């Protein structure tokens, strides 16, 4: 079992907010441990509301009832959930901030590619800041939830994520992508959560400046 186990940041009668480590999947996978199975083994009923890729760490929302799952999943489907990610690259982007928009299509070797068409586009707003050692930190605000959306967005900017060898990134000890903040409506209340990453490169960034500031 790779690295640390997940942690439960918040538990209510309706949902869990989980901090998922890198190397864990959300649902069953013969090649890696699963967050849902981990919860089931502890006697919890759990339904996936959204997902994070196996190499991505950070906040994961899991419903505890079918009713909560329907309500929370609808929030994601309707774009009412605010998601903020942190990423690191060792390559300068073509622009420091802005938007990446475009349809996505399957490509070779399990990759996805960004298209010029805008029929059902993946949409990401981003900002970037200079870090130590020639690296660049990215704050990513996905407005849609397409497969590999953020990884493809940074590749399109000429700044594939550190550790993202699938998309041409420099090899590293992990994929440097972390689901940092999550905000959503539930039962008439706006709720928000944050989980800071624990890896050295991320913690050095957070210790010197807030990602909220340029």
Estimate the strand proportion.
Answer: 25-35%
Structural class comes to alpha+beta
| Mean of pLDDT | 93
Largest sheet: 10 strands, mixed
The stretches of 5 or more residues where confidence is low (pLDDT under 50) are: none
Number of strands: 12
CATH topology of the domain at 79-177: Pseudouridine synthase
GO biological process, one term: enzyme-directed rRNA pseudouridine synthesis
GO molecular function: catalytic activity, acting on RNA; pseudouridine synthase activity; RNA binding
Domain Pseudouridine synthase RsuA/RluA-like: 15-155
InterPro entries: PsdUridine_synth_cat_dom_sf, PsdUridine_synth_RluA-like, PsdUridine_synth_RluA-like_CS, PsdUridine_synth_RsuA/RluA, RluA_PseudoU_synthase
Could you write a compact summary of the structure shown?
The protein has 214 residues and is of the alpha+beta class.
Secondary-structure map:
Blueprint: E1 7-11, E2 15-20, H1 35-41, E3 47-48, E4 57-63, H2 66-77, E5 82-89, E6 97-102, E7 104-106, E8 112-114, E9 122-130, E10 136-142, H3 149-156, E11 177-186, E12 189-194, H4 200-208
Parallel strand pairs: 4-11
Antiparallel strand pairs: 1-2, 2-4, 3-4, 5-10, 5-11, 6-9, 7-8, 9-10, 11-12
What keyword list fits this structure?
single chain, 214 residues, alpha+beta, Pseudouridine synthase, two-stranded antiparallel ribbon
